[in-house]
Design brief:
about 350 residues, TIM Barrel, eight-stranded parallel β-barrel
């Protein structure tokens, strides 16, 4: 029997108050209704396609002290490295040889070691190998994003981490990232620069995921209204491996994730939803039915990881829980009736 507090909710026209109610109540039957509706909506909007991409880490120096991150500035035993342009070219060639044509370039958050000019030069190299080039780097100024757009950047991914200001302050001890307002205003600078694809997210588990996801939804909805020409996307990474238990991280279950992703699809019918290799293969294989449109595949989270091969977790930003190769993920998708997409034809046509 459906919970009284969920009665009257129209899954076709969800409001943010509906989302709050859905997240507050644990109703298995209603979640099944949401999953069915999200699956059908995703098929209507996106067909049976899943876009594939891979991250490319080119540097891991960082100036921030984020207590939950393996790259933070004072992390002991973390080998720091930065690829030269020649090494970036070789990494791009190795990654492209797998058949991947979409890349997400990442650096640690250090302007000194990974200057905007360094990132720009890396983008120019990557653009020779990939039809879609996105960035996940520290927040930049509007004119710097514009220069990167002109160099070939198609999209930017940015995580606010948590929308809870007090919690944000507790978790970011020092460094430029500690300034909450500068980070949360970054999507506006990106949108004004000419970049047309922006993926936003929160790191679920840092605090109450319900509050963070509602705040994320409100943030993206407001940005959609301000920048109708920009295509927004969502990502929902969750803490999988915690070095200590003193920071009161909160578990986000698989069932919670299903609720989050189906709610996102129903609230944002045309928004892309990404799923990374932070998740186990079994979960990724199942969740793609209910709203996910983009997956990383054959990922390495190490600097220079595609030429050297994946080594140990301590060298990467986070552990890769889905170690399958690019071809293995494509085969999985086909076996489940999906069409893996490796090339962004829109960029080729519009170039």
């Amino acid at each position: 029997m459906m919970s009284k507090s969920l009665r009257g909710i129209d899954l076709v026209h969800l409001t943010i108050d509906d989302i709050r109610r859905i997240f507050t109540v644990d109703d298995r039957g209603f979640l099944e209704e949401m999953a069915h509706a999200a699956r059908e909506l995703t098929r209507r909007q996106f067909g049976r396609t899943i876009s594939l991409f891979a991250p490319l880490y080119i540097a891991n120096y960082c100036e921030n002290e984020c207590v939950y991150c393996g790259f933070h500035a004072s992390q002991k035993g973390m080998p720091r490295s930065k690829l030269t342009m020649e090494q970036i070219d070789k990494e791009c060639a190795a990654l492209a040889a797998t058949g991947n044509r979409s890349v997400l370039i990442l650096t640690g958050e250090s302007r000194f070691h990974s200057s905007p000019q360094y990132i720009r030069d890396a983008v120019r190299i990557a653009s020779r190998y990939f039809s879609y080039v996105a960035l996940e780097v520290y927040p930049l100024e509007e004119d710097e994003y514009r220069e990167l757009y002109l160099a070939g950047v198609d999209g930017v991914t940015l995580y606010q981490e948590t929308y809870d200001r007090a919690r944000y302050d507790e978790l970011h001890l020092a460094g430029p990232k500690k300034v909450y307002d500068y980070r949360i205003s970054t999507p506006d600078r990106i949108a004004r620069s000419g970049i047309r694809h922006i993926t936003l997210g929160a790191l679920l588990g840092l605090t109450d995921w319900r509050k963070d996801v509602v705040a994320l939804f409100e943030h993206v909805r407001s940005l959609e209204r301000k920048y109708p020409g920009v295509e927004f996307g969502l990502a929902f990474p969750r803490l999988r491996r915690v070095a200590d238990d003193i920071h009161q991280y909160q578990e986000v279950s698989d069932r919670d994730m299903l609720k989050i992703i189906t709610a996102a699809r129903l609230f944002f019918p045309r928004v892309g939803i990404s799923m990374s290799t932070r998740e186990l293969p079994q979960f990724r294989d199942r969740i793609i039915e209910f709203g996910v449109t983009k997956m990383s595949a054959g990922s390495s989270t190490r600097v220079g990881g595609y030429l050297e091969g994946e080594k140990k977790y301590e060298d990467g930003q986070f552990e890769v829980f889905d170690p399958r190769s690019f071809d293995e993920v494509k085969a999985m998708l086909r076996s489940r009736g999906f069409d893996p997409v490796v090339t962004d034809w829109r960029n080729i046509v519009n170039s």
